[in-house]
Design goal:
single chain; alpha+beta; Rossmann fold; Dna Ligase, domain 1; D-amino Acid Aminotransferase, Chain A, domain 1; 8-stranded antiparallel beta sheet; 5-stranded parallel beta sheet; 15 helices; 27% strand; binds ligand MV4
């Protein structure tokens, strides 16, 4: 097992990782920018190294500074958390070259999953259902037109280097395709330095359902069921839950098996997520594979009583997994609390927190790094807390989440709490009747509250 792990991240996830390391008897090193000197991850780690000024590009993204911090503290592994360098093939490679275990995917794996067209080709070969579309990249406009006529409009043009909603366009006819062709490629070139495009049938009103998987060095794979992440705004997830209200026993089995096939096809090592689109007929299609721990890993943890950070560390240390699959034992929901003003176009709302009181009681978990008197710096992600609630039924989870949100006091800044309170009063949401279009179709913030 590792002696000392450096956590190349900040905020709630850095604290989350430190907590598990402590429980495992592993020493911890925090790295921090000058904007984070009063952060809890700095306070609770055994050691802390300042790695630069507030901008991420000069601190949390600066590979040489982080490697140096690992060297001087004699760390034998680095946990990258999510975001920042967690899916950076170069960083994974530099760790490898310096004999520091990167608790995440290998450089080859990150590259293979980062190129979406080739990831899709790999999945098709492995028998994982994918959206019908071009076999590989589009050669030219004529090829794009021919493909569109074969798969039938509406279609989606996607940048192979894109992902997470970046570099894609819905097209409804030849005319739109002709207009978009050069433009979308130029945008992709500017954003990713790669203008490779592929095309697929546009799935209307899908659900976003992802499967948590794990694989070890010995070819064992398991899945840990689904998370429904359909409640998103501009590709930012706001609420996640498990089980999905749309799930059936058969669909879970089929998606779980497909996710394991995806993991096995690339000899996946570690914990990962296979993202699927699910249409109204419960057809499911591979979208992307994430090779990092995700923000929403927490709901799976509560649903199956596993510590996924611990699993990540154990797998990286060469300990085999059982290879058994898991299904949710309770209903779990997570609301992301962001320092944003939902009533003012979701504008970031950094600043000093005044009075702070977090909810507690049975079935309530709060993952956060903030406290009364803490100042949220303007330089990073606006997510400041994850409120996770679990109970025996979805109905009880909703009642408990409403209660927990009512108890949550965060003064001095604006947060997404009022949005969540209104969402939890929406009859369609309460009925489990939602797709990724939900927040576009419902004016949650201005609707009269309709359920008592
Ligand atoms: C799609 C799609 C419809 N049809 N692909 C968005 C993020 C990226 N991972 C893929 N995305 C989509 N791909 C086809 N063929 C709709 C989306 C999509 C979406 C997916 C999941 C969650 C929210 C979304 C919001 C808009 C579009």
């Amino acid at each position: 097992m590792f002696n000392k792990i450096l956590i190349a991240n900040r905020g709630e996830i850095a604290l989350r990782i430190i907590r598990t390391c402590k429980e495992m008897g592993i020493k911890t090193v925090a790295v921090y920018s000058t904007a984070d000197k009063d952060s809890l991850h700095v306070r609770f780690a055994d050691e802390a190294v300042c790695i630069g000024p507030p901008p991420s590009s000069e601190s949390y993204l600066r590979i040489p500074s982080i490697i140096s911090a690992a060297e001087i503290t004699n760390s034998d592994a680095i946990h990258p958390g999510y975001g920042f360098l967690s899916e950076n093939a170069k960083f994974s490679k530099v760790c490898e070259d310096n004999d520091i275990k990167f608790i995440g995917a290998s450089p080859g794996m990150i590259d293979a999953m980062g190129d979406k067209a080739s990831a899709k080709a790999t999945m098709i070969a492995a028998g994982v259902p994918c959206v019908p579309g071009s076999a590989g990249l589009l050669k030219d406009l004529a090829h794009a037109k021919k493909t569109a006529s074969e798969i039938v409009y509406p279609v989606m043009m996607k940048a192979t280097a894109g992902g997470g909603g970046k570099g894609m366009r819905v097209l409804w006819n030849d005319e739109e395709l002709e207009d978009a062709w050069e433009k979308v490629r130029r945008e992709a070139k500017a954003a990713f330095g790669n203008d490779g495009m592929y095309m697929e049938k546009f799935i209307e009103e899908p659900r976003h359902i992802e499967i948590q998987i794990a694989g070890d060095m010995y070819g064992n794979y398991c899945h840990m069921s689904e998370r429904d992440c359909s409640i998103q705004r501009r590709h930012q997830k706001l609420v996640e839950e498990t089980p999905s209200p749309f799930m059936t026993t058969k669909l879970r089995k089929d998606m779980g098996e497909a996710a394991k096939r995806a993991a096995a096809a690339v000899n996946y090592e570690g914990v990962g997520t296979v993202e699927f689109l699910v249409d109204k007929h419960r057809n499911f299609f591979f979208m992307e594979m994430n090779t990092r721990i995700q923000v929403e890993h927490t709901i799976t943890e509560e649903a199956i009583s596993w510590d996924l950070i611990k699993e990540q560390i154990k797998i990286a240390a060469g300990i085999p997994i059982t290879g058994k699959d898991y299904k949710p034992q309770v209903h779990v929901m997570q609301c992301r609390i962001n320092a944003e003003d939902p009533f003012n176009n979701w504008r970031p709302s950094p600043g000093k927190i005044g009075d702070y009181h977090q909810p507690g009681g049975h079935g309530v978990r709060v993952d956060t790094h903030v406290y009364s008197g803490y100042t949220i710096p303007p330089n990073y992600d606006s997510m400041i807390s994850k409120l996770i609630v679990y109970a025996r039924s979805r109905e009880e989870v909703i009642a408990k989440m409403r209660r927990a949100l009512d108890e949550y006091v965060i003064e001095g800044i604006k947060t997404t709490i009022p949005f969540h309170q209104r969402l939890l009063m929406n009859p369609d949401f309460v009925a489990g009747n939602f797709t990724t279009k939900f927040l576009e179709e419902h004016d949650i913030l201005n609707d009269e509250v309709v359920i008592e």
